Amino acid sequence: MSEENAFGTTMRIDLSPEVLKSLQAPAPHRPRSGDATGVIRIRAKSPDAPPASNDDFRKLLQSLYDAAILTTSDGRIIDANARAEQFFHTTAAFLAGHNILELLNGADASLLSAIQSSLAARSFVLIQVQCIRADGGTFPSEIAVGHLPLSVPCLAFYVRDVTIRRDTELSLQTGITALRTAASGIAVVTPFGTFTKDLNPALAERLGLPPPPAPPISSERQKEYNELAAAYAKDIARFSLGEFIPDARVKEEIASAIASAAPWNGEFRMRSLAGREFWARAVLAPNVTGEGECIGAVVSILDVSAERAAKEGMERYMKQLAARNAEMETDLKMARDVQMALLPATYPKASSAAGKLAFAHVYHPSGLVGGDFFSLVRVSDHEVMVFMADVMGHGPRAAMIVATLRGLIDQFAREVPDTGEFMTRLNAAYAGIFSGTEEVMFATGVACRFDVAAQRLEIANAGHPHPIVRRADGTYAKGNGMDLPPAPALGLLPDAEYTAVSRDFLPGERLLFFTDGLSEAEGETGGPFGEEGILEVFRAGEGAPLAHALKEIVAAAKRKTGEDEFADDVGLLAVEFAGGGTPPPASET
């Protein structure tokens, strides 16, 4: 496919394996870059290759900055310069005699025909293609092709490696897309704090400003979009960031940060054009040129009113607890009753023609209230989200974190279908709520979405022990048997991103989730109970009801420690893809 250069003297050809056959098509198409790979068979040097140019010409050839390759009219390589040797990881002698098409991913003889046809009317043809190195690697390139008036008719291929430019373009496009689709408000401001056209819809809506024009869905509407964008830039420049910040001190800090090209972040009140106030968390990053001149800043603004309210409410509650030491025991007992009441009395139902989900659990807090918990959220009639966590510490603080996490889980489980994104948003919200505490308050967690209709599960882990898997073929796997990528615990890194792994979940399979209070249960001698101990008893319960298998695991751990109570909270949750019918009632705790 081809695209006329703006000056009318150059033809541009974008080459990819999928569209090579359309090079001769009469209608122009949008260029696209190739990214396929292939195996190239390099033939021996042709004995009848035309001789290279004279010494003066070779000196000129070698002095070119771009890689230069000379070929006959049918593409056989005559000579190449040192830059070509660098690009293709080989020598000019090795290249000589081979066909240029062997260096261009997906190319065939039709490419040369298109080049020759275009050069009949133009000085150069521009090709965009993936080049193949001698070691099999590839790199994106732009190649200018032209006739060379030597004694033997030649084609000159001037190759430029555009890897950095391509990566920059992709990064820029990704950034523009992220700017428009981000849920948080993002804007680019001038050194004076006025808004530019780079204001995303989320922030425009939050502040009550006119929304930016939507980008065109086709090249035919590009001119119309450019006109709208220019008009929008002029209109939006009437507003400045400071107009929406009532606190004069905050406005002064932001203005000073932009003037000194320094990053800034903070939480403050904002007020929309309509007068609606909200708490905002803002991060400001200066835009600095290569000469060190600050030409503005990028500002990210997140409405944290709900988080702020929750944080303030929790801080008030903690102060009340400190002032009511005499009532602490009663409060703890009440908290235990509430926590136990949050455990499911019945399990959510999820079924399909292939079967249904069955559950069982055991929960033993080490004190009046514990930091281990699990949540089951019925997402649809055939989907259930399972979440198990272990909050750092015990007592009232852990109980409050558990309560906060439960609310966030119930909200995000239904809003976010991707399990990795669910964990990412949960971590961000959790870290934001507890960012003002003196100590790092983290929690490990594992989330798994079961879909019995698709017979699939999707799982993401945040520093929690990996579940034990009983596969449909009767084999077992402990540890990271599902190749989950490592990820930090919740609350450690506010900007951490979590990735989910998807796999089949077939009838007859079981997953056992547990907290480290069980695997680390240890007696006076012999080491901890460990995942090996859990796996051994779980395997021994093959075919037994889930509830019975879990009780046997707990009993074996107590025999290991020689104690009736555990030193840490213990949580066990088993999920099985069983046959049809009604799920069994919940286990006793």
Topology of this protein?
Layout: E1 2-4, E2 10-14, H1 55-63, E3 67-71, E4 77-80, H2 82-88, H3 92-95, H4 109-119, E5 124-132, E6 138-148, E7 154-161, H5 163-181, E8 185-189, E9 195-199, H6 201-207, H7 222-236, H8 248-259, E10 264-271, E11 277-288, E12 294-303, H9 305-323, H10 328-342, E13 351-352, E14 355-364, E15 372-380, E16 383-391, H11 395-415, H12 419-433, E17 443-451, E18 456-462, E19 468-470, E20 476-477, E21 501-504, E22 510-514, H13 516-519, H14 530-540, H15 546-561, E23 570-578
Parallel strand pairs: 2-5
Antiparallel strand pairs: 1-2, 3-4, 3-7, 5-6, 6-7, 8-9, 8-12, 10-11, 11-12, 13-14, 14-23, 15-16, 16-17, 17-18, 18-21, 19-20, 19-22, 22-23
Structure at a glance:
By secondary structure, this protein is an alpha+beta fold.
What is the domain total for the residues? 3
Mean pLDDT: 82
Provide the CATH superfamily of the largest domain: PPM-type phosphatase domain
Principal-axis shape: globular
Low-confidence blocks of residues: 1-10, 19-45, 581-589
Biggest sheet features: 7 strands, mixed
Structural class comes to: alpha+beta
The total of beta strands comes to: 23
- Percent strand: 25-35%
Helix content: 25-40%
The CATH C-level name of the largest domain is Alpha Beta
CATH topology-level fold name of the largest domain: Phosphatase 2c, domain 1
Task: Indicate the CATH architecture of the largest domain.
Answer: 4-Layer Sandwich
Give the spatial strand order of the biggest sheet: 1-2-5-6-7-3-4
Specify the number of helices. 15
Intertermini distance: 68 Å
| CA radius of gyration | 33 Å
